[in-house]
Every structure is written in C-alpha cells, then in structure tokens.
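Revision sheet: structure tokens.
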Amino acid sequence: MDKLLYVAMSGAKQNMNSLAVSANNLANANTDGFKANLAQARSMQAFGEGLPTRVFSMTETPSANFSSGPIKTTGRDLDIAVKGDGWIAVQSENGGEAYTRSGSLRFDHTGVLRNDRGTAVMGDNGPIVLPLPIEKVEISQDGIVSVRPSGATAEVIEEVARIKLVNPGNENLMRGEDGLFRLMSGENAPADVNVGLVSGAVEGSNVNAVHEMVSMIDLQRQFEMQVKMMKTAEENDRASSALMRIS
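Predicted:
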C-alpha cells in the first residue's frame, strides 16, 4: 500500500514543479529575448534502509530552448537583435559577465548603456559608457556604437565602443537565477566577430503560448490522477483495516 502512496505522492509533487516551469514560460511569452525553459522527468531510486524498493520521480530543467524568437522591427536606434547564433555580453549583479539576447537598450544619466532590465552592456574593455550629452546613438551590424554629440552637425559621428558579442556554443551555457546565461566553466567567452546584429529591431520570446497552455492542462490532469491514486490508497487501507477487525 505504501508503495502506491509513495509513487502517487512523488508524482504529484513533480507535476507541480513542471507546472511552475510552464507557468514561468507562459509569463515570459512577451519578454524580449527570453528562452523557454525545458522540463523533463526521470525515475530516481530512493536509497537508505528499507528504501531500495522505492522509486520516485524527479522533474528537472536540464537546459533551455535556444531557438531564435521572432525579430520585431521597431525602428528605434537603440534596439538591436542578434542575427542567428550569438549573445550580447552584459554585466551581472556581482560584477561578472553574463549573456542575453535582450536588445532593447537605453543609457542612464551617467551614460552607462543598459538593456531594458537595467543590466549594463559590456564592451571590449568593460561596461560601455557614452560621453554625455549626446544627440543621437547608432549601433552598426558589427556592434560598433557611434554617437553624435549635442550641437554637432549631422555628419559628425564618433565611434565610442563596440558591444561585446559572443558565440560560445549553446551547449556550454546554463541559465542563472537572474535569468542570464553563463558559461558552465565559469569563464568569460571570447568576443566573436562573426556574430552580427540587426539594428532597429528586437528579438521576441521564443515561448509558444499554445504549447505551454496545452502542457499546463496535461500536467493538471496528471496531478488530478495522482491525487485520485492517493485517495484510492487511503480507501484500500481503510478496507484492509476493516477486514482485519472482522477476522
């Protein structure tokens, strides 16, 4: 009896974990540059005295869906999208380097170039700082950031930095709790001159909302089935206890 209850209990718990993954994906269906989390379940044997006969399920998120999202043209000078494979290097909260595909940029009152999440964009020599005041900013396909100082004529354009673009291979990346990707080795990826940008556009989320909704419905049905199994185990236990009292 306890085997049935244990399997149903662990299955219901992991269904809830899978629901959380799908719900997070669905919540980020409109987040620029977001890569959907993947979830998988596998059987794990329980170890310890009297436990080798117990097997429980475990849901894990081994990786993300690295397929490109739709390119949305905005016409905004500070919007960029990575063309094909590659990533934009940014500075994480702890001062290290991380990678993202979110390319809706802006600059703060100190001139630091940031994305829409407030994360500083990295150049070849650290975070990019624009010389204020400026009238116009242009970002080329190879990541060169050029500015026109305030009051300058239209033909005056000065190159100030190059956005660090990398392509370390998606199989070498892992997502952190802050949603940014990093190399599994903990090192910084080298700049890759072959990574190109699309100016005046951003990459949308690659989440398939319909797929995530169907997945959530399926997981809810599985959760209900696990709960029914637990109720059945309880009913069987009561029936067994009643038979013992009769005998």
